[in-house]
Amino acid sequence: MDETEVIYNGACPICAREIAGYRRLSEANGLPIRYTDLNAADLARLGLSAEDAARRLHVVQQGRLIAGFPAFLVLWSSMPRMRWLARLLGLPGLRTVIGAAYERIAAPLLYALHRRRRNRALHKARPGG
Prior knowledge:
The chain has one domain (4-125). The protein has helices at residues 13-28, 50-55, 69-77, 83-89, 92-125, and strands spanning 4-8, 33-37, 58-61, 64-67. The protein is of the alpha+beta class. α3 (69-77) runs antiparallel to α4. A four-stranded mixed β-sheet has the order 2-1-3-4, with helices on one face. A hairpin with a 2-residue loop joins β3 (58-61) and β4.
């Protein structure tokens, strides 16, 4: 099995917590999945900017970059304990609804929180901030 690479936002507490669970499952099962924090990654090799990478989950599998909800399906399909979820949520009707909810609600919300945290950190770093 080829290595799967997950590009995630380690500065996002929600994202980091979820990825930590996936990482534990991967390590417990000896799965060839590498987790890369976008804040310490060479994103240019993937043709991604930091802003694009922070907007949604990305997975690289067999040289293909997959973004958003399909990236979760690829990741879950790679994990024995999560395959059932990938199969269920990958069904045509569910895939469309869940994918739209991720793209229109979850991903924008997480990205807005990311920008807010980043702006606060920049404000605090300024003299007099």
